[in-house]
Design goal:
heterodimer; A: alpha+beta; four-stranded antiparallel beta sheet; 2 helices; 10 strands; B: Glutaredoxin; three-stranded antiparallel beta sheet; 5 helices
Chain lengths: 170, 210
């Protein structure tokens, strides 16, 4: 009798553990399809730096490159709880700002975005003409075929590192 | 007799077609490309009037633009490829001019253009003096304003006049492509980075064959 009760409790515990593993509580963030624009077409790469450009970099507190780039990706939240993207950092730039391109009365402008909500069981796309991470103060040329490392900071999931291939838009 | 009946049927069909077929309205003239002396990506003088015998597709960019201008340039490249496929390369000239001549020298533009695989045989990237670029901006009724970032917040140049040279900025600007006929008249306006290339090609072909 005691043996049967013990087996029953064990089976119930196993079932509960399996259920907990199958349906994680909280957000479950995955970052896919990341890419960044190369800076082959940007001003500072491979060219001689003029005094004017040196001045620009110095004033911006940049590390020697006033070119810009943008990073795009898709965030998938497969968990049962929402999360929030709070910001990004990268070794490839002194600043990685979250921006959104907005078109108002046919005028395109960029707006800084402090937080991007990622609801439970939802996907949020960072894509050209929408949300993107703007890289300013590049620490190196972003050459097609190479990668950069982007760290995304989430409110609940913490820091998530992403390897970002550098390529032209397709 | 039979011949008469056949003619009657033909006349009826033509009459019905004229009633039923949608009328193709002529394209409006929005504005005219001004006379401006610019400089191409190789440092050569380029007068806008030298495109008068060709249909022109015109876009605007600045090379520090991280998101929209690359997207617009990708659209222009797709249009260039489609024009080539259609055998119209000798009839259509693509022009891209910078709204940020202070930072976009010919060399900078050449590097930017090269990154998008432009074919210089019928696509020219243009810069110029601030005065000449302003003539173009005004004639095309474009909105172009610098935006400085102070403590992460965007501040329009109107609220921060007389910034020292070299202060970094982005540029808010009209998102538009222009299709211009052989007389220099703007006949179609397309939504820049959001342009549907099929629609663009339809309009370009129509203006080429007008």
């Amino acid at each position: 009798m005691v043996h049967r009760m013990f087996l029953g409790v064990l089976a119930a515990l196993s079932l509960l553990t399996a259920l907990a593993l199958a349906a994680p509580i909280g957000p479950k963030i995955r970052v896919d399809r990341a890419w960044a624009r190369p800076t082959g077409g940007n001003p500072m790469n491979g060219g001689t730096k003029t005094a004017h450009m040196q001045g620009m970099s110095a004033m911006a507190g940049m590390s020697g490159n006033d070119a810009t780039s943008a990073v795009y990706f898709v965030i998938a939240n497969e968990g049962s709880e929402a999360d929030v993207l709070l910001g990004a950092t990268t070794e490839a730039a002194s600043k990685a700002d979250m921006h959104e391109t907005r078109v108002r009365n046919e005028v395109v402008e960029m707006a800084p975005v402090p937080r991007v909500a990622v609801p439970a069981h939802a996907r949020v796309e960072f894509k050209p003409g929408g949300y993107h991470i703007m890289l300013v103060g590049l620490t190196r040329d972003l050459k097609e075929g190479e990668t950069l490392t982007l760290t995304l900071q989430f409110e609940k999931s913490g820091a998530i590192k992403v390897d970002v291939p550098i390529r032209q838009e397709r | 007799m039979m011949c008469g009946i056949a003619l009657l049927i033909l006349a009826t069909i033509i009459g019905l077609y004229r009633v039923v077929a949608p009328r193709v309205l002529p394209l409006p003239v929005y504005m005219t490309l001004p006379e401006a002396q610019l400089i191409d990506q190789d440092g050569r003088t380029f007068a806008l009037t030298q495109t008068r015998d060709k249909v022109v597709v015109l876009s605007l960019i600045y090379t520090h633009c991280p998101d929209t201008c690359p997207l617009t340039t990708v659209k222009m490249k797709q249009i260039q490829d489609r024009i080539q496929t259609a055998g119209l390369s000798h009839q259509v000239q693509l022009l891209t001019f910078t709204v940020d001549p202070e930072r976009d020298s010919p060399e900078v533009l050449k590097r930017f253009a090269g990154a998008f695989g432009f074919d210089p045989s019928n696509w020219v990237f243009l810069t110029g003096t601030a005065g000449q670029i302003h003539i173009l901006i005004k004639a095309l009724s474009l909105y172009v304003k610098r935006v400085y970032y102070v403590n992460e917040a965007p501040v329009p140049e109107a609220r921060l006049p007389d910034q020292p040279a070299g202060t970094p900025y982005l540029v808010s600007h009209t998102d538009r492509l222009f299709v211009i006929d052989r007389q220099g008249n703007v006949r179609a306006l397309l939504p820049g980075s959001r342009t549907n290339v099929d629609n663009a090609m339809e309009l370009i072909q129509r203006i080429v064959h007008a």
